[in-house]
Amino acid sequence: MASTSDIRKGLCIKYNHDIYKIIEFLHVKPGKGPAFVRTKLKSVTNGKVLDNTFPSGHKIEEVKVVTSQYQFLYNDTDYFHFMNNEDYNQITIDKNKIDYPDLLKEGENVTIIINTEDNSPLSVDMPLSVILEVTHTEPGVKGNTATNATKPATLETGANINVPLFINEGDKVKIDTEKGQYIERIK
Length: 187
Fold this sequence. Notes:
The structure is a single chain. Helices cover 0% and strands 55% of the residues. With 187 residues, it is an all-beta fold. The protein folds into 3 domains: 2-62, SH3 type barrels (Roll); 65-125, CATH 2.40.50.140; 129-186, CATH 2.40.50.140. It has a 6-stranded antiparallel sheet, with no helix packed on it. The chain is flat, with a radius of gyration of 20 Å. It starts with a strand and ends with a strand. The mean pLDDT is 87.
């Protein structure tokens, strides 16, 4: 058993008969009253996100997990196939367990969290950002960089995102995998 002082981003816990991953937390010490920890939990089984507040010192049940580096091999509609970089074992993961699966490019390395009790994959942590090529967008117009106007673009993986007006087909762009948003153009 762990307590609220052990809470950190990425920790997997059992809560309400389900396994949740902590995606955000904040220790709060108000001027009046006891301290508490405000958390944002994401269910690893159905992907629902909920806000919860634990009183300071509250006991939480931690799930024993192993994290390993895996390489993305390919996908077949609903399932994504990965290979362990150390022992070359392959696993298949449901598309719903991956945030922004459209941003995964073949050969990309990800971190997969596996429950040690039953060897089931809990979540896939993608790199903070990926660099992808724009395969289709409307032509850019010179001088349209003063405003934050955007246009739709299709990336090499099939993902659709909004990019600034100066981006053209063939440009490489850096994408934030946590939010699925454009960060910058790569030259």
